[in-house]
């Protein structure tokens, strides 16, 4: 009898551990919080934006408990790999270079258009000084275009560099620049043609986290199928963005 | 352009958000978090009223909270660093050679490495060391390698803090690591200052104590330590000022301190995503930080001068001598 109780207790214990590894786990979602409309801090001090809404919905569908964490863009991949959080949703485009270090789910935003913004027409985009955020696909593109690249840690600083004349133009995701150009009262304008870059925006995960990746992939698939992802894209980025 | 369609064809998102979010999980909206009733429609406000609403949004309270964090860091780090320094200095002048090497090694190594390199390395190394030790203790059956490529993977139970812990636990843990690192760095400098101060106490004082039959321990605590503070104070006050100015390093460690929030709050806010749109105001926020730090250092300099005067009283130093003569006049 005593033996039986012990075995049951051991079973219960190990079941408990198994549970702790599966359902009891809180998935920590890393984001930057400085890249509206993808992610930003609202007036109440909370993380808000397209990715917040999408991520919450994905967690609900995957039946996971999730918590949001802010991290600087510069160190967002090292801190994922180091285990400080479990996912990245920060408007991060899927590229081959990043894919070598981390894994991505399928894209939840189609390949994005990047564009130049300047204070006047006729800026030399091939030979001038172009601002871009450090470690972005835009920075990589500018470096190869022959223009002089100036890098900044935050998106805010890249636009400020154009406003104060430090750079001739800024090169960034079109979606980030649209609200800024519209509200600048004519100070900022789009120049040149849009450049399609990257393989779409996806959620970044550690390469070893295959279970989590499967769950979130399934959640994205179901959101694409029932049209909720399209509705969210239309809501945050304007009508016609959702094309899944 | 009229105010109503300032944002062009974009609908104002804060309005849409209210409707589309699940009410049960709906976070309190920004307009409810301000403390004044008239803040419900910031667009209609101007001047001081607008400013009073703007400065009392939830996000601003996080900014004010960050000042508390800085003060807390100072309040905790200073005594801990001082005790590290005292231990280091005492060890360095120990007659037991290995202990002396340990003290001297601590002072030399930490003082010789750039602060930033030390901060970045130490916080990551410390965190992974703790998790590794817990992993070995808590998950003996684990077979997968801990390092898989670039990934650092320990079992869920060994995570520090546990991934299921609330966000404030994570923040407190990061903050504690930062305080510890600050204490180690500034402790090394304090150790060097205290070591010098101990050497500066006139040797005759110690010999006299010995002649009176005091043991080395009694000589240390009753004669050396009380007299060394006056020699240590200029160096320590210097360190204190540097510590105040070094607090923005917290930002480097991923802690949302005053610098983080100044940068975040000062950045351009568009009307689509905020009820309080404004341009690039980072300059004003950083100006506020400048004033804050100036007031801090100015205030502590006054305080330290007072302590210095108090410690010099009755001491066999130039300062103490001047006070004695001044009193006699």
Task: Give short descriptive properties of this protein.
heterodimer; A: 244 residues; alpha/beta; D-Maltodextrin-Binding Protein, domain 2; 5-stranded mixed beta sheet; B: 329 residues; mainly alpha; MetI-like fold; two-stranded antiparallel sheet; 13 helices; 2 strands; 68% helix; flat
Care to describe what's here?
The complex is a heterodimer of chains A (244) and B (329). Chain A is built from 9 helices and 13 strands. Chain A has helices at 2-21, 50-61, 76-81, 96-101, 137-145, 155-163, 174-182, 210-225, 228-237, and strands at residues 26-31, 34-35, 39-41, 47-48, 65-70, 87-88, 103-109, 112-118, 129-133, 148-152, 169-173, 189-197, 201-205. In chain A, α5 links the parallel β9 (129-133) and β10 (148-152). In chain A, α2 (50-61) packs across α8 (210-225). Chain A starts with a helix and ends in a 7-residue tail after the last helix. The model of chain A is unreliable at 4-23 (pLDDT under 50). Chain B has a single domain (47-328), classed as MetI-like fold. Helices cover 68% and strands 1% of the residues of chain B. Chain B contains 13 helices and 2 strands, in the order ααααααββααααααα. Chain B has helices at 13-20, 30-33, 47-54, 58-92, 97-112, 115-138, 167-200, 203-211, 216-246, 249-252, 258-266, 282-312, 318-328; strands spanning 147-148, 151-152. Chain B has a two-stranded antiparallel ribbon with strand order 1-2. In chain B, β1 (147-148) and β2 (151-152) form a beta hairpin. In chain B, α4 (58-92) packs antiparallel against α11, α5 crosses α7 and α9 (216-246) runs antiparallel to α12 (282-312). At the A-B interface, α1, β1, β5, α6 and α7 of A face α1, α2, α4, α6 and β2 of B.
